[in-house]
Amino acid sequence: MQFLSIAMQKTNDREKSMEFVQDTFITVFNNRASAHKITSFRAYFYTIVKNKILDHYRRTVLHKRYVAYSASHSPDAYEIHYIETRELEKLLEEEIKKLPPQCENIFRLRREQDMSNKQIAEQLNISVKTVEQHMTKALRLLKTAFKIHNKTLLILMLITLN
Known about the structure:
The chain has two domains: 2-72, no CATH class; 75-161, Winged helix-like DNA-binding domain superfamily/Winged helix DNA-binding domain (Arc Repressor Mutant, subunit A), CATH 1.10.10. The chain is an all-alpha fold and 162 residues long. The termini are far apart. α2 packs across α3 (41-72). The chain has eight helices and no strands. The chain has helices at residues 2-11, 14-30, 41-72, 75-97, 101-111, 117-124, 128-148, 152-161.
């Protein structure tokens, strides 16, 4: 009962206090194999209860921060980001279709099917160097096209994917 009183003083919530004390008994039971090392059960119990309360407060603070962060990043911002992303994907697809056929084919094999240059070369019966040249040409043409469309973010994405 004394540990319940201590928990009540710290939380002002009887239900939570009872839960902390009960969890403490469960923790002690689960760690009973090392009970012979405990010199003061009262101090041991008190420390466990205190840590349970502190963990609860940490989780509460973290939850409040998450709620505040979520509120500041409204669904409207996500919707706008989603729309912008879809527009960029559509623009990228249009520009890929404008590539020369061999460049387009190699670009799609590399980016969409995640094939290595060697795998592409074997599949198309061309040299690895030719695959590299076509990828370089495709990336150069796409970068130029996006400069025209003033989409520098996607250009940076293309560069980092290379």
